[in-house]
Amino acid sequence: MIRFIHAADIHLDSPLHGLEQYEGAPADRIRTAPRAALVNLVDLALRLHVHFVVIAGDIYDGDWPDYGTGLFFSKQMARLNDEDIPVFLISGNHDAASKITRSLNLPKNVTRFDHQRPHSVVLESLAVAIHGQSFATQAVTEDLSIHYPAARPGYFNVGLLHTSGTGRDGHENYAPCTVDGLRNHGYDYWALGHIHQREVLCEKPFIAFSGNIQGRHIREVGAKGCFVVTVDAERHCDVHFESLDVLRWEHIVIDTPCQDTTSELLDEIAARIEKRVADAEGRWIACRITVRGPTSLHEPLNANRIEFTQEIRNLANMAGHDSVWIEKIRFETSPLEAAEAQSDISEDAISEILEVFAGFEQGSIPWDNLGLDMSDLHKKLPADLRQDLLSLRAGLPPDWIAEARTRLVQLLRSNQEAP
Fold first, then answer.
1. Beta strand 52-56 with 119-123: parallel, antiparallel or unpaired?
2. Which of 29, 279, 282, 295 is the most buried (most CB within 10 A)?
3. Which helix (H) or strand (E) segment is 105 a member of?
């Protein structure tokens, strides 16, 4: 029996820009969370007495501001070295050879695969062959897996690859590959990194993204961790997920609220928060609340937006005993009668609007090119929204673009006036 851990995308000491601008943000907890998750990973490996650990890229988030980042990683690897647990890793787009200018010698149990060509490491005592290649530069656009060595007959073969697969929203299309292409190598397990959402692409052979070990922002919601893989004598894999995160991001969305009063809606929100708290099993939670869709509560919610916002923050305090931080509250409701109205706008016009949004998503239409003067709006906004508006100078966040596109099309098709 062989047991190993597949992890990826640690993003140690990932910078968090502008977090201090958000009310009550647990900045220190969020900033140190990747380190704590790495400690949890090492603790798990020691507790399970695994035979080895593979890390599929992006150990670091970029060049180190100082040697502290590298020293911390080296210290954790030394804990595994003390128990004779080898670690095999590759560099990804964030910690490619060209991006990390500082270096430290890692403990002898750590093998980093070369960035010039793929190669193999054989563990004879386990009859295991591990194949991999690091990124030489950040933007690797060719399929690295094509040149990986052939499977070693009679061995359990593991492929270690940092890749976008066939492409995923929100991730650069680096080292693209296909499931069929990976299967053709004859490996028993492909340990993939780069995509932060956990995903199994194939079970025979097992091809999977383990996701990152710690969510870093609201677009990385839910449990984060690693895969523990147990291999039997026939080389069959039993794979299960183990959570490692210390702070969990959650997004609670209430679509088309059916409650008759704001008190009932608050009760529903409280129940949702309490459920997330229970599921988090003692972890801190950073939570966004979105209330959207046609509802009879549209007018009272918008008339008492500040009061309602504070009530939600109070509910979070009571549910989480100071372990829940409300990252943001969004109101995207509309009157019920507006949902029943029919729009006379043509689908061709809507298609043209969607093309503009596609330009924003692809970066071909810079925000500054819109030429909008928002100085008056800026003065009237609450502090947290003013910060959001200022942040747009650096570009539109992907989730903002998606939400704005959905909301605008909803308004146009319903003949509703924007609030």
1. unpaired
2. 295
3. none
Q: Which residue has the tokens 């099993």?
A: 281
Cβ 109 vs Cβ 86: under 8 Å: yes
pLDDT over 70 at 412, yes or no: no
The answer to whether 217 touches 245, Cβ cutoff 8 Å, is no
The residue ranges of every structural domain in the chain are 2-243, 247-340, 345-419
- Tens digit of each residue's pLDDT (9 = 90 or more) over 151-210: 999 999 999 999 998 887 766 788 999 999 999 999 999 999 999 999 999 999 999 999
Which tokens belong to 276?
Answer: 């997330």
pTM of the model: 0.80
Span 220-242, pLDDT tens digits? 999 999 999 999 999 999 999 99
- Average pLDDT estimate for 212-219: 93
Residue 100 phi, psi dihedral angles, 5° rounding: -95, 105
SS3 of 184-207: CCCCCEEEEECCCCCEEEEECCEE
* Cα dihedral sign, 243-246-249-254: positive
Closest CA to 197 of 223, 179, 178, 175: 223
Give the mean model confidence (pLDDT) for residues 104-119: 94
Q: Is 398 helix (H, G, I), strand (E, B) or coil?
A: helix
Structure tokens at 373: 């003067």
CATH architecture of the domain covering 2-243: 4-Layer Sandwich (3.60)
User: Which run of H or E residues covers position 410?
Assistant: helix 398-414
Alpha helices for 55-145 (secondary structure H) = 68-82
